[in-house]
Amino acid sequence: MVDDSVDRFFEVLADPTRRQVVRLLGEGPQRAGRLAQATGTSSPAMSRHLRILLSAGVVTDERVADDARVRVFRLRAEPVVAVQAWLDQVQAHWQEQLGAFKKYVDQTGETS
Question: Which domains does the chain have, with CATH numbers?
Answer without folding.
Answer: 4-108 (1.10.10.10)
